[in-house]
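Repro:
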Amino acid sequence: MTALETRLQEDQKKAMKTGDKSLLGLIRLLRSQLQYARMQAGEEWSEEKAQEVLLAAAKARRESISLFEKGGRMDLVEKEKAELALLERYLPAQLSDQELSTLIELCISETGAQDLKDMGKVMAALMQRVRGRADGKVLNERVRARLSGR
């Protein structure tokens, strides 16, 4: 069992004792998703893979929020935002704007990128370093702006 799974198990016990139904429901869902992913992975289970499952869950909630906002379903937007806030407790700390800028510049210089044609190389190098500590959509926008000279 990974450290993340142990933490979720302990937090589930606390949520049961305190009667926090929203947190309890989210933790049960996450633990179920982690268990399924572990079965799919077989013997190759690690802390990084467990984090990937949670990052995917967070991404799904962000996408749901966007779609619900477009559909005018503010009740569901609030529910998803609340779940995302609870889920973020278990995600790695997000990088600051300054740290992102530094990493983007570093990856651009390492890959020798000159323009938008080199964006794929920069994004590949950047995603290796970021590993869930920044939103890929935000990174894409920032790299695109930097390479296009904006």
